[in-house]
Design brief:
The chain is of the alpha/beta class. Helices cover 33% and strands 18% of the residues. The chain has 2 helices and 3 strands. Strands 1-2-3 form a 3-stranded parallel sheet, with helices on both faces. The radius of gyration is 12 Å and the shape is globular. The model has no long low-confidence stretch (mean pLDDT 93).
Length: 79
């Protein structure tokens, strides 16, 4: 049983070193994790769970409110 079983987290910067470590730890501890990125395909190799339903990686421009709102909606629908 993981420390974050059933929790949902949104992690920005998961294609970078620190964000990737944080996201990986959350996934390993049982959280559902949403990963917004301008190029989400960069995350597929590091997070094979993307296809398993516990991780969502989708296109998002964090500096654009409409893009963030659309991403959050996708995450709410998924998790």
């Amino acid at each position: 049983m993981g420390r974050f079983d059933g929790a949902t987290a949104l992690v920005t910067g998961a294609s970078g070193n620190l964000g990737q470590v944080v996201a990986r730890r959350l996934v390993d501890e049982g959280a559902f994790v949403a990963l917004p990125d301008r190029q989400p395909e960069r995350l597929f190799a590091e997070f094979p769970e993307i296809g398993a339903g516990t991780v969502l990686a989708a296109q998002c421009q964090i500096t654009d409110a409409d893009s963030v709102a659309a991403f959050v909606q996708k995450a709410e629908e998924r998790f």
